[in-house]
Design brief:
The complex is a heterodimer of chains A (about 170) and B (about 190). Chain A is built from 7 helices and no strands. Chain A is elongated and about 95 Å long. Chain B has 2 domains: about 100 residues, RNA polymerase sigma factor, region 2, helix turn helix motif (Rna Polymerase Sigma Factor, Chain: A), CATH 1.10.1740.10; about 90 residues, Winged helix-like DNA-binding domain superfamily/Winged helix DNA-binding domain (Arc Repressor Mutant, subunit A, Orthogonal Bundle). In chain B, helix 6 packs across helix 9 and helix 8 crosses helix 9. Chain B is elongated, with a radius of gyration of 18 Å. Classes of the chains: A mainly alpha (about 170), B mainly alpha (about 190). Chains A and B meet through helix 1, helix 3 and helix 4 of A and helix 2, helix 3, helix 6, helix 7 and helix 9 of B.
């Protein structure tokens, strides 16, 4: 049998049991036996290396941060829920306003406004459904508000822009 | 096996309690894993290790819904810690290199202190370890000092198991060479 390769010697030193062939070979091959002893020696050496510990005040520090984070979540969740509801009502009110002022709206402006409404509804669902990730929810509400505002802006621009008939007069 | 399962169930209960805002359960989890997380952060960025370790536990708490309760917590925590450390290294280079890092008083066990030669040898081993490339260095630390399996190391380092074994082999060969150059006898039964 040829010599045992280095990676296999390492595995044997890491407590993987040798096969029968390997056991026989190790008994008759001083070179491989010596290499295995060196690998085992290194394993023993590594086990003796003292390891640093976390500072004594670390546990208290992390626990304080956790309690602080819990407190922040407790007041942020209702705030975010309120923000979500407000964000949902805003485009609804503006849609109603635009529908009242214009009996016929262009398709594109309705698409923009409806999309904004969808985003806002989604953000509200996230606020209610996942209070554990207020950061992501906050971003979702902000994005929804932005989309809502863009939708309203587009709607207002459409309302103030002269129609083709008015422009040609 | 049953003991492992018992620990996993215990961990799961603690994690659930911590998720619901039980500070005592959270403290128990931190207490169990703080040293392993702190050590990983220390290996990546000596100066900010404590901040990074704290950030690891807070991230774990914030993203607790991503935790797979069927798996052990430590590899998950170490994965978060490693990502944080790598992000921090990308932003700022660590101020202290591993070579410059002062010896931690906690490292100095009475039995190690008793023999100056042994202390020097251990110091040489630690220095040689700190000079290894990231992969072999972490593979050795996680396997030999944190007691993780190949599979868990592969998950943390995001590499195949074969790469972990190669890193271990390469790192150990380099350590053995460094110890031989320092005339430290490395054979079975020659440990301090």
């Amino acid at each position: 049998m040829s010599h045992i390769d280095e990676q296999r010697l390492m595995e044997l030193a890491l407590a993987v049991p040798p096969s029968d062939h390997e056991t026989t070979h190790l008994a008759s091959c001083p070179s491989c036996a010596q290499a295995l002893a060196a690998e085992q020696g290194l394993t023993e050496w590594l086990a003796t290396v003292p390891q640093p510990l976390a500072p004594a005040d670390f546990l208290a520090r992390v626990t304080n941060a956790y309690v602080f984070a819990l407190g922040r979540q407790s007041y942020r969740a209702p705030l975010l829920a309120f923000g979500g509801i407000a964000a949902m009502l805003l485009p609804l009110a503006l849609l109603a306003l635009s529908a009242w002022t214009n009996t016929v709206a262009s398709l594109s402006s309705w698409v923009v406004a409806l999309r904004a409404l969808g985003e806002v509804t989604l953000s509200l669902m996230r606020t209610v459904g996942s209070p554990s990730s207020p950061g992501a929810t906050l971003i979702a509400v902000q994005v929804a508000l932005l989309l809502g505002a863009l939708g309203v802006l587009a709607r207002l621009m459409w309302m103030t822009a002269p129609t083709t008939q008015e422009a040609t007069r | 096996m049953s003991e492992t399962l018992g620990i996993a169930v215990d961990e799961q209960r603690l994690a659930e309690r911590a998720t619901r805002g039980d500070a005592q359960a959270f403290a128990e989890l931190v207490s169990r894993y703080q040293n392993a997380v702190y050590r990983l952060c220390l290996r990546y960025g000596a100066n900010e290790a404590q901040d990074l370790a704290q950030e690891t536990f807070m991230r774990a708490f914030v993203h607790r819904e991503r935790f797979d309760a069927t798996r052990p917590i430590l590899p998950w925590l170490l994965t978060i810690a490693r990502r944080l450390c790598i992000d921090r290294i990308r932003k700022h280079k660590p101020v202290l290199s591993d070579d410059d890092r002062p010896l931690d008083p906690a490292d100095e066990r009475p039995d190690a202190e008793s023999a100056l030669a042994t202390r020097e040898q251990l110091g040489q081993l630690k220095q040689a370890h700190s000079k290894l490339a990231d992969g072999p260095r972490e593979a050795i630390a996680l396997y030999h000092w944190e007691g993780l399996s190949y599979d868990e190391i592969a998950t943390i380092m995001r590499v195949p198991i074969g790469t972990v074994m190669t890193w271990l082999h390469r790192g150990r060969a380099q350590l053995r060479k460094a110890l031989e150059e320092a005339q430290v006898p490395v054979a079975k039964g020659t440990t301090p």
